[in-house]
Amino acid sequence: MWFFSPEHIPRPGCTLLVELLPWAATGWRAGTERYGLPPNLAAFGASNRWFFYAPGPPAELTAAELAELDGRAAEAMATRRWRTELRRWRDDVRPRLVARHRALLAVDLSSL
């Protein structure tokens, strides 16, 4: 089942977003695993540039898998790891990406 989620993307998206958003499910899965949340089999898609979300089936986990998730979740809460990850994004990754994108924008396309 697919759901329209206008609180996230309230208008039709551009071609680039239509192409990239389905890949967000990959990042979503990696994030849930890292933070000790149950596996998320979500999918993102577009129809006529309008975006939709499908939560996917619930994960069936063994007791051992649940215990491992609990351990990861406890570690994430105890260390507040999101703060370190946000700091890394803000201070390291994002500035490098912005600089690279600005360098690409500065290229004179007529010279290529």
Describe this protein's structure.
With 112 residues, this protein is mostly helical. Helix content is 54%, strand content 11%. The protein contains 4 helices and 3 strands, in the order E-H-H-E-E-H-H. The protein has helices at residues 15-20, 24-35, 63-79, 81-105, and strands at residues 3-4, 43-47, 50-54. Strand 2 and strand 3 form a beta hairpin.
Brief write-up:
The chain has 112 residues and is mainly α. The protein has helices at 15-20, 24-35, 63-79, 81-105; strands spanning 3-4, 43-47, 50-54. The mean pLDDT is 91.
Structure characteristics:
112 residues; mainly alpha; flat; 3 strands
Class from helix and strand fractions: mainly alpha
Please provide the ordered H/E string of secondary-structure elements. Answer: EHHEEHH
Q: How many β-strand stretches?
A: 3
Shape, please? Answer: flat
Instruction: Strand order, main sheet: write it out.
Output: 1-3-2
Number of discrete helical segments: 4
- What are the low-pLDDT stretches, counting only 5+ consecutive residues below 50? none
* Radius of gyration from the alpha-carbon trace, in angstroms: 19 Å
Report the end-to-end length measured between terminal Cα atoms: 46 Å
Strand content: 5-15%
Mean pLDDT: 91
Helix coverage percent: 40-55%
Largest sheet: 3 strands, antiparallel
Q: Which assembly state applies to the chains in this document?
A: single chain
